[in-house]
Specification:
The chain is mainly β. It contains two helices and twelve strands; from the N terminus they run ββαβββαβββββββ. The two termini are 23 Å apart.
Length: 175
């Protein structure tokens, strides 16, 4: 095996937030060995997910004082409030650590039961269509502390049961 060049590095982030970096020249033999010793090694290179559950700030019609709600437990309360008028949800979070130049950071909005518009701080992320999966690249919008704002414009027609909406950040490792 020849290890003459170290100018290219292959990196992954495991689900345990361990960073593995190998020179490309030594990547394949070591990868084969790791795969024999630990067959689950390559399954650990999935995106790292940060769920934005927990405390959110909810404001109805911009005149009332903000109310604290917890996701995902308070989704029924949020849907009830959305039928009463304009609703704004806000969640503060810190920029995730360990983001490389080649990695991507996406905001995942899945099965939200309303038409909405989303922002990080003052940067618009566009419109969110009800009951669909959205993956929005937000890496360029992240500051040390960010405010995710979701303004609910229109509640979607709801059935008796709906899937639990999910809001999360996904850090995709460099490929």
């Amino acid at each position: 095996m020849e290890l003459a060049r170290y100018d290219k590095i292959r990196s992954w982030r495991t689900s345990y937030r361990i960073r593995v970096s190998l020179p490309i020249a030594s990547y394949q033999p070591v990868a084969d060995t790791l795969n024999k010793v630990c067959p689950l090694f390559f399954l650990m290179t999935e995106p790292y997910i940060i769920r934005l559950n927990g405390p959110w700030e909810m404001t109805i019609n911009a005149q009332q004082a903000p109310k604290r709600v917890k996701l995902p437990a308070n989704w029924p309360q949020i849907l009830q409030a959305a039928s009463e008028g304009t609703l704004v949800l806000k969640r503060w979070f810190h920029r995730p650590t360990g983001i490389d130049d080649g990695s991507q950071v996406q905001l995942h909005l899945i099965d939200l039961p309303f038409l909405a518009e989303a922002w990080i701080d003052d940067a618009s992320l566009g419109e969110v269509v009800a009951m669909q999966k959205h993956a929005i690249d937000v890496k360029s919008h992240l500051a040390a502390r960010c405010c995710l704002t979701i303004e609910i414009k229109q509640l979607a027609p709801l059935e008796k049961t709906i899937p639990t909406p999910q809001i999360s950040l996904a850090i995709l490792p460099a490929r």
